[in-house]
Amino acid sequence: MSCFIDVLHESDFTIHNIPFAIISSSESQAPRAASAIGSYAIDLLALAQSGAFGKCSVLGNGVAARVFAEPTLNAFMALGRPAWREARAAIQAALSATGTSKLREDEELRQKVLLPLEKVKFHLPANIGDYTDFYASKEHATNVGVMFRGKENALMPNWVHLPVGYHGRASSVVVSGTSIRRPNGLTLNAETKLPEFKASRKLDYELEVAAYVGTGSKLGDSIAVGDAEEHIFGLSLMNDWSARDIQQYEYVPLGPFLGKNFGTTVSPWIVTLDALEPFRVAQPKQDPSPAAYLSAGSLDAYDVKLEVAIKPPTENTPPIVVSRSNLKYMYWSFKQMLAHHTVNGCNMRPGDLLGSGTISGPTPTSLGSLLELSKNGNEPFQLAPSVTRAFIEDGDEIVISGHCSKEVDGQRIRIGFGEARGVVVPAKSL
Amino acid sequence: MSCFIDVLHESDFTIHNIPFAIISSSESQAPRAASAIGSYAIDLLALAQSGAFGKCSVLGNGVAARVFAEPTLNAFMALGRPAWREARAAIQAALSATGTSKLREDEELRQKVLLPLEKVKFHLPANIGDYTDFYASKEHATNVGVMFRGKENALMPNWVHLPVGYHGRASSVVVSGTSIRRPNGLTLNAETKLPEFKASRKLDYELEVAAYVGTGSKLGDSIAVGDAEEHIFGLSLMNDWSARDIQQYEYVPLGPFLGKNFGTTVSPWIVTLDALEPFRVAQPKQDPSPAAYLSAGSLDAYDVKLEVAIKPPTENTPPIVVSRSNLKYMYWSFKQMLAHHTVNGCNMRPGDLLGSGTISGPTPTSLGSLLELSKNGNEPFQLAPSVTRAFIEDGDEIVISGHCSKEVDGQRIRIGFGEARGVVVPAKSL
Ligand SMILES: [Ca+2]
Ligand SMILES: [Ca+2]
Ligand SMILES: [Mg+2]
Ligand SMILES: [Mg+2]
Ligand code: NI
């Protein structure tokens, strides 16, 4: 596929990608749907109004202009995978260097549809009804377990039998670029054994990827694991900010609460499963075999290279990479998470968000949290010549990025997720 | 205050109450706001269109007709406590036996506004962005702790220092009358020590009261405990259905998930804090004193008599009362819960739901769950001459009700919450 717009080979937004987001611009401040190509956002409402989706079977007859005018992607998500597929194909056709394309031939239309990325503002891509976070990396669960319960009891017995998850807070999911205030809370004073109210001293990030539910399910029904991919709209980057000291004091017996719900950052772009298809790889071998309702093919992981970088406020450098991981390390697949989540009849709605849990790999350079990197703060590391870190300091910007790249038919293809970034601002004074 | 409509003294919906709900009717199928008086729902959209809120400072100028026409109460909630107060006062004035009342004098208007309760359909009163469940009854937390961890470790050390809570699932909160399907899931086989996939055999209810957030807060901000009541729209009954066997297998370390999220039933009516004001009583003494951000007055409990009844499918009787508890047993107040929930900057939105946790009292007849009543199934009890129960059986209907009653100036006043009811239907076959 060749594109009439020049796209750098290292761009996240090649014609093979076609991700979805919600944008606004100074010319048109109403949030609306967009895709991206190279250094441009593609205004999908303007593209729909030009008739580019007219021949689509679901999106024709004005449906595209209606759903792409919405301030969230929920209505588009609810249309189902055939609609997501034909949207991607129609956008690729409009961008193609060959064949019929009004966009390619009409200079005025191009001005309206193609907006320089640095000029658009991003909004949360969906109205997230419910956000659930899982715990699907065996390396991460083991690393954390060793620190808190010792090597013998690192993994709970249930961990290998089901994808452990918990409900998160939907209201505080924010789009990349939103600053995050350091939370205050009760933490244990190790000497007095009593709680103290203060600003968190163990503020951390968690490198995650999240799936958006596209089409939902009814209360009392389940989504079969074999059908689950049809319900998943696509994937985004996610930073599940975590205050380890608050979390540790509060989490027994009912799980994480104030240690997590002060903010969760998602990337603006959602990359569809269709775009990720060429990057499908084997998932880690599951031993013991899971229950039948969780049994799926083994090719359910995606080879997505992930990075975490920190930009300290004192250094005039680009963000400094502290970790390189990969989505393929996830022990449980998103298909399995969705099948598990609904096996009891729990209903899903378009826009629901499923976090992977922190994605750590097998090596010391692939750890997805500072908790693991600094061994719960006991081993601060060198970030720059004069900068060490154990946990996040005020003013630090955390940048998560991800991309896939692969040789296909002698040609290297690349797609990327953009970034999920956020600066930590000081706590409110007590 | 006297009402021109005859209201039975034992009615939940006296002129002292004026609760809020969302209804539809066969004549007008669009969901809209309602209140209640005696055996009638009050169509608030029709009442607003008659000009009954014309002199209100927030609800005047057509605002009442706009917010009461919405399919949820969220827009009304977002207007704030002055609007809730003037709405209640204007409705009471319209119902008054004295003074000017178009409703009282206009027979045709009464036909449009007053709809027999048995003819209206109830909908979920709010779009619930996030639902959080707490664990605020010391008796319940202790009873459960003794069963699972023994008498010495019954209460976790953090329990007396903060209102323990966890995020619940908003999508599966349903209005009273919705049937609940028995969930399937993984539970531990005690002999093999391996999980088995099957229908829950320990299906339970939890007697709870829930607060709806009225006005919200911004991410990064907190709601001070002294200001928290201004943010709470009102209270409803809630049944937090729980599958104890699924819950027990899954909940360590990240908390309840599939054991809870298959359904949560709320009553249609929300009783405002203003209506509850005469029933304010002292809350249990908090020892140790909580941190400053949780320190409030001690008159923050409400004397609300609560009942749980079970109607077995085999018996032709009214529901049989199995428990009588009271909201005043809550150790932590809703004010404290809201202050705690936001102290880290977690944002609230209108319509957010805060569950109390199971409300158990100090006696064997005031236990808020079957887990406690049957000692985790070990002591089945007699429900009717030929009926025993340890946990919920298929076809059982669980009915939660609640009311307040008190002598004020020589007159007994009573307000009630209506009911939260639900029938359990058999699990899907595996
Ligand atoms: Ca996480
Ligand atoms: Ca509960
Ligand atoms: Mg978070
Ligand atoms: Mg529940
Ligand atoms: Ni190509």
Automatic annotation (TrEMBL), chains A, B:
Residues the record lists as binding substrate: Y135, R149, Q247, Y251, T358
SUPFAM superfamilies linked to this entry: FAH (SSF56529), Fumarylacetoacetate hydrolase, FAH, N-terminal domain (SSF63433)
All copies of domain Fumarylacetoacetase-like C-terminal, residue ranges: 131-421
Keywords: Calcium, Hydrolase, Magnesium, Metal-binding, Phenylalanine catabolism, Tyrosine catabolism
Pathway the protein acts in: Amino-acid degradation; L-phenylalanine degradation; acetoacetate and fumarate from L-phenylalanine: step 6/6
InterPro entries, sorted: Fumarylacetoacetase, Fumarylacetoacetase-like_C, Fumarylacetoacetase_C_sf, Fumarylacetoacetase_N, Fumarylacetoacetase_N_sf
Catalysed reaction, written as an equation: 4-fumarylacetoacetate + H2O = acetoacetate + fumarate + H(+)
Record-level GO BP terms: homogentisate catabolic process; L-phenylalanine catabolic process; L-tyrosine catabolic process
EC number: 3.7.1.2
Enzyme class of the recorded protein, top EC level: hydrolase
List of catalytic residues: H140 (proton acceptor)
Annotated GO MF terms: fumarylacetoacetase activity; metal ion binding
Pfam families associated with the record: FAA_hydrolase, FAA_hydrolase_N
Entry's transmembrane regions: none
Annotated positions binding Ca(2+): D133, E206, E208, D240
Keyword ATP-binding: no
Start and end residues of each Fumarylacetoacetase N-terminal domain: 16-125
Residues reported to bind Mg(2+): D240, K260, T264
Named cofactor requirement(s): Mg(2+); Ca(2+)
NCBIfam families: fum_ac_acetase
Family: Belongs to the FAH family.
Protein name stated in the entry: Fumarylacetoacetase
